[in-house]
Design brief:
- The structure is a single chain.
- With 77 residues, this protein is mostly beta strands.
- Helix content is 5%, strand content 56%.
- It contains 1 helix and 5 strands.
- The strands form 2 sheets. A 3-stranded antiparallel beta sheet has the order 1-2-3.
- A hairpin with a 5-residue loop joins strand 4 and strand 5.
């Protein structure tokens, strides 16, 4: 996957606390068909600060997900 954009995001959670993070936009080659697919991943700043890799636009990355389908890690490919 290739990072094509990163946008800050802020919103209020159910418990009225402020949640800040990043929307990370990625593209990847389609397995069936032609062209590329795209995906948006939201990662909180708290989680992002714990990662050894810090995402940058243009990087090729491998994304890992937890059993609930949430992004729990990213590493440069």
């Amino acid at each position: 996957m290739k990072i094509i954009g990163i946008r800050p995001s802020f919103f209020t959670g159910e418990d009225k606390s402020l949640i800040s993070g990043r929307n990370i936009y990625l593209t990847y080659p389609l397995e069936k068909g032609e062209g590329h697919g795209s995906e948006r991943i939201f990662v909180t700043d708290a989680k992002l600060n714990q990662w050894p890799y810090q995402p940058k636009v243009g990087d090729e990355v491998n994304v890992s997900y937890n059993r609930y389908g949430k992004c729990d890690g990213m590493a440069k490919a």
